[in-house]
Amino acid sequence: MKLLSTSILIFINLFLSACSTTPEHNVPVEDRSVSGTASQDVIIGSREVVKAETEFVLEDSHREKSISEQSTSPVALAFLKDADKYTTAGDSARAVASLERGLDIEPKNPWLWNRLASERLQQKMWAKAITLAKKSNAFASGHNKLQKDNWQIISQASMALGDKEGARKANKMIEHFSTETT
Predict the structure, then answer these.
(1) Per-domain residue ranges for the chain?
(2) Of all helices (H) and strands (E), which one includes residue 173?
(3) What is the DSSP annotation of 122-138?
(4) Are strands 64-66 and 48-53 parallel, antiparallel or unpaired?
(5) Which of 127, 120, 156 is nearest to 174 (CA)?
(6) Is there a contact between 76 and 112 (Cβ–Cβ < 8 Å)?
(7) Full-model pTM
(8) Which residues are CB-neighbours of 96 under 8 A, at least 6 positions away?
(9) What is the CATH code for 38-179?
(10) How far is the first Cα of the chain from the last one, in angstroms, to the nearest whole number?
(11) pLDDT tens digits, 167-179
């Protein structure tokens, strides 16, 4: 009986101490605005405001996309910009980490999935690139350029894996999205 009452007291003590703990929200936030581009405030948590640009160009070794033409959030834009910065610096691991953090916040963002698929393609992780590009397509309804880009990733990765049938099907989808208007 004494053990049970001691356990209950410990539980209550831990519970009350957890309830009274206040997390720190006074962490400085990096200003991500870029001169010459429109920016808007994004509220993170209860007190922090991040300036996130609404227009920039994401460049990849085999693709270029204007993010401003695509519907994505300012938070996702910030993570995409960070990934672009890390990729340009040759730090693919940090680019992937940035994209994964973005996906933790916006798990249905097709632009983040696409960019992660592109990183995995560059890392020669063919099967992961295919899976991620397919995931992007699952959320990319109505975004033909993005879907076409995903199918290009799938085609390249399939060829690298020796899956000629998968690459043929992907190329057929690329043709389909090439004829569609965006």
Answers:
(1) 38-179
(2) helix 164-179
(3) HTT-HHHHHHHHHHHHH
(4) unpaired
(5) 156
(6) yes
(7) 0.62
(8) 83, 116, 119, 120, 123
(9) 1.25.40.10
(10) 71
(11) 999 999 999 998 8
